Amino acid sequence: MNGTRAIADVDREVDRVVVTWDDGGRSTFHHLWLRDNCPCPSCRHPSVPERLVDTLSIADKIAPETVGVTALGGLDVTWAGDGHRSTFAADWLDEHAYDDGPRYEAPARTLWSGGAVAPPPEVSYAAVMESAAGLREWLRQLERFGVSFVRGAPTTPGTVVGLAERIAFLRNSNFGLLWDVVSKPDPDSLAYTAHALGPHIDLVSREMLPGVQLLHCLVFDADGGDSVLVDGFACAAELAAEDAEAYERLTTTPVRFRYRDGAGTDVSARVPLIRLDVDGSVREVRYSNALLAPLDVPTDDMLPTYRALRAFGRILVSGRHELRIRLQPGDVMCFDNYRVLHGRAEFDPNSGPRHLQGCYVDRDDFLSRLRTLDSNVDPDVDRRVY
Ligand code: OGA
Ligand code: ZN
Ligand code: ZN
């Protein structure tokens, strides 16, 4: 798409038109597609960003009465039958031409291998809170590296909510909108103990993972408790390259995660540990040793499934795709919870306090904020009262 082409000529065929652009290129648009995408105010609401045209109401053999090129190099169609008129701007048609299939832009990702993420990407709290440019930088780092550290946040409880709301409203769960990570009596998560936590994805027992996780360090005087982050996509790529059998198995075998607290929550998801998109790229890495339900694959698949799971798990803990850091008060560790696993070393709660606060934002809202920033929508204009 270059957005500057105009239509020079248009030919009609039985069920489509073929336009010739002024640079000599050609694009095909089916009659049905054109009628279905008519931009006029009776087909697309003028202020609500939704369609009014009903695909089912269009005649099977819809065809133009006339086609022509507009003064601005767009396409003008008058439809046979009802005389409805559709006028398409050249740049809209150019942007939506489908001759080569969907124009999917793979996210710009840098996997962490060979030190690609050192030093860790970071941005200042003030920049994120006070400017659209700082906010955009933070979200771009998260998109590219799957991690970004926001430094210099106040250590007032609740601060992380305001930071997350620079993106969008928070994602809720049985742990609440904002949760305190402290070693406490009667914990309902291993996170709320002093145990080591192996690399894991949060809320794996839910069908829809939270997209972005923020963990804000308020107080950290305890011995131990250093953080580890692991690039799950880099680990999946290593597995695919080194052990194709294991990779194939983990991308196609659903396993079950379950979290049941006996206090009103019993969530369960049945998903492959490495979940692929329709184009074969990795969409999610789901791994949490703590929340895996007993494997229930058929008998003959049990040992091969364990072998694959353990091969992947060993890559996750190999240190080849990881970042280790000791959080400082005022740091907010933010990461892509579809991609980057997090964990911590055991700590000694008697040596001093350790208090983090965390929250989540859904992936849709993260991507939405990135797109609106890219189209220069001021994030402060798009503030709703959450
Ligand atoms: C969590 C978690 C890590 C830590 O709360 O989800 O993994 O460093 N915490 O305490
Ligand atoms: Zn119309
Ligand atoms: Zn966690």
Number of strands: 22
Strand order of the largest sheet: 7-8-19-11-22-9
Considering the protein shown, what is the CATH homologous superfamily of the largest domain?
Clavaminate synthase-like
For this structure, the quaternary state is: single chain
What fraction of the residues are assigned to beta strands by DSSP? Answer: 25-35%
Helix content: 10-25%
Largest sheet: 6 strands, mixed
> Which regions are unreliable across 5 or more consecutive residues at pLDDT < 50?
none
Query: Under the CATH scheme, which class of the largest domain?
Result: Alpha Beta
The chain-level mean pLDDT equals 95
Counting structural domains, the number is: 2
Structural descriptors:
386 residues; alpha+beta; NE0471 N-terminal domain-like; Double-stranded beta-helix; 2 domains; six-stranded mixed β-sheet; four-stranded antiparallel β-sheet; 23% helix; binds N-oxalylglycine; binds zinc ion
